[in-house]
UniProtKB/TrEMBL annotation:
Domain Peptidase M1 alanyl aminopeptidase C-terminal, residue spans: 553-876
Organism, as annotated: Roseibium alexandrii (strain DSM 17067 / NCIMB 14079 / DFL-11) (Labrenzia alexandrii)
Protein name: Aminopeptidase N
Sequence similarity: Belongs to the peptidase M1 family.
Enzyme class label: hydrolase
Residue ranges constituting the Aminopeptidase N-like N-terminal domain according to the UniProt record: 87-188
Gene Ontology BP, a term: proteolysis
Amino acid sequence: PTTIKLEDYQPPAYRIETANLNVLLDPTATLVIAELKVVRQPDTKPGAPLILDGDNLKLLSIAVDGAPLQSNAYDVTPSALELTPPTGDTFTLTITTELNPDANTQLMGLYRSSGTYCTQCEADGFRRITYFPDRPDVLSVYTVRLEAPRDACPVLLSNGNLIKTGLVPDTDRHFAIWHDPHPKPAYLFALVAGDLAKITDNFTTASGNPVELNIFVEHGKEALCDWAMDSLKRSMRWDEEAFGREYDLDVFNIVAVSDFNMGAMENKGLNIFNDKYVLADPETATDQDYANIEAVIAHEYFHNWTGNRITCRDWFQLCLKEGLTVFRDQEFSADMRSRPVKRIADVKLLKMHQFPEDAGPLAHPVRPRSYQEINNFYTATIYEKGAEVVRMLQTLLGEDGFRSGLDLYFDRHDGEATTIEAFLKCFEDATGSDLDQFALWYEQAGTPLVSVNTAHNPKDNSFKLTLSQEIPPLPGQQSAKAAVIPLRFGLLGPDGQDLEITTGDSTKVTGDVILLKRPAQTITFQNVPDAPKVSLLRGFSAPVRLTQDQSADDLAFLAKHDSDPYNRWQAVQTLATQTLLARTEAVRRKVAFASAADLVAVLQTVLEDDRLDPALKAQALTLPSETDTAQDIGNNVDPDAIHTARTRLIAEIADELQPLLLPLARDYAKDSAFSPDAASAGKRALSNRALHYHAHSSNPGAVALVNDRFENANNMTDRIMALTLLVHHGFEGAMDALQAFRSRHATSALAMDKWFAARATAPRDETLQVVQDLIADPLYEPSNPNRVRAVLHSFATGNPTQFSRADGKGFNLIAESVLQIDKRNPQVASRLLTSFRSWRALEGRRSSLAESALLRVSSSEELSRDCRDIVDRTLQ
Ligand code: HT7
Ligand code: ZN
């Protein structure tokens, strides 16, 4: 396989100024007539070869300036079309290709989802539609004519503004012509055609321009689009208010489809969404679904400026648009909801997905230097760590400095395809700062480990804080340089109040932020009469791991008094982690558990604190997951021991705190009308957390209470939580509940995905067989990525004891499934394959069984480039 390297970047030899596409839609023989105005670039010699990308295309004809080319005048390979062009500065190339949308199971390029034609072109799908320089630094103005039968496809959409519609004389066909005035890379091209319903609204920009807003869905699903539309309008207003960014076309269209490889796609003026991130009502969507829809709608909309108006020069710069846009959507959700709760949720996600990626064989820098398959680089590192890097920039420069840098970026690079260097230069120029060392965050893989030592001297009332940083060795990165790490912090006095910070060294401390720039650094604080409690990494101000000696008393103190809500939550988590690690070790050594009294006492304080938001309480009461605990153990991991330790700890807490938890679980206002707002969702989260504890308790009434919650739920959040508890605990009533849920939601694919996932994640021996039965279920659809993920991805990533079974059967099931899915959809297969990424951390027997399963995948001769890349890197 070819490796593409950042250092080999060359500007394009030819650009395409305008692309006029005429697309004659047909399920198995769509014709695409592309008329491209080609412009030779100043550094290109006249007549230099023109190479266009192509993938799985049937070329019907090619003409230059209207003159057909004979087949000996060009070369066609499976991946390119090469010709010797005229020597003039510009010429017109007309290429006709034929496509088979129904045969497109990869869901890249033009395909059909439930009969609707749609496209996915990022990263390299446009080359499956026509021959083209399919690279993000070639920006063209598109005019697209779509033609299809009127009955089958009353709706014809493409990017930009609609300029003409009409009937095709003497046929049953009609056409629509769309023009997008904004030059764009091919990956932002889109078309949709089908028989769809729509809901319409409108928005007036701050400058007074009216915008028509449409969401297109399958007929009958219109009522499920209100939340998405509301989220869109709030996103548009927020981007104006928070970043001064206005929308720039007459219409903004969103289309929801059920077969989609990822979450959604930001095509200019025509976003295409996995319907999971559009459709919602209380009957079928959980509170998490509502929050996700709001965030994904915002994310795709925000790409209009960060991604579309300013795009990436090459795919190595992917984080330029993705990290920045995730940062923007996180800020939006924080403003719409509770900021601390959102921050905790984002950090939990980062630690759950990005930290293990960054610690294993698939680790890569936020800006990778090489790749074999770009579709494998839409990772938690590019997205989530990329967002953390932008957040650090804001912490370092302050809100005003950050905003002035971003304003300069929008001014300077509007309409361009650019780089991380150019982005950082804007912040340097706007604020006069030097970001050379900061740029290392883009260059180095791995999570820095920050160690902390303290020394208090009562004689001179000084307090020394010594910090050091290192990135443990990784494949391909034996050593790393010291990064600049902004550590927001506070020192708490005996009364729990933050002390006034006095230190002589302003290069190391600015306000409440310590700048750790060297491998090790000591800061001396004055006027500290008593040894303070240190609250470090407030708000999770840098994506690092912290090792700090903290006693249970210190953590309890911080959990109660820290003025930073994130660190209050973190203190509870750290205490829970310490307890879980000790107990996992006890299970393995078959010795008695130490007491969990400290943790129980802290959780009791949390539950009794009336000032705390219910959503925050729910977060604090959620123990670190089994996967989190495995990461903290680091090597020789035994998932069964973790599971036993964690389950017993939850049971112990449930019994100890029953007087507080039971009323929360039982007296929850189930009769009140449902509202998806954050405050109501927070109350549900707390009650469901309490129910979760109660299900683990020794209270004989637990089974009845969970069944009662299932039967009386008036929303999906409560119903699926109760169902999951029934199934995971094997409670009496579980089978009836599964049947009842299935009958009730048989026609909602999104609701049924939850049913499949609840079954696939049951930490029970029989789940392996259950998963095999689910794959054979008439409702299982191997061509639908959401359903495949609901079953197989949920099993591989959400069921550690069963995926990593000691008999290796969990690994074998996933390896076998990867090989099957790969034949149809390599992107879905390779993502599933990444669930093996932490295999080396498992104890010996399990890790060698995982390795055998990986070797089986590797030995397949028909592996896609996607899976070959992942399996090779995972085994390295
Ligand atoms: N920018 C979009 C990425 C995406 C994608 C990438 C590869 C294959 C299929 C895909 N669908 C969408 C989504 C986003 O980050 O907004
Ligand atoms: Zn994105």
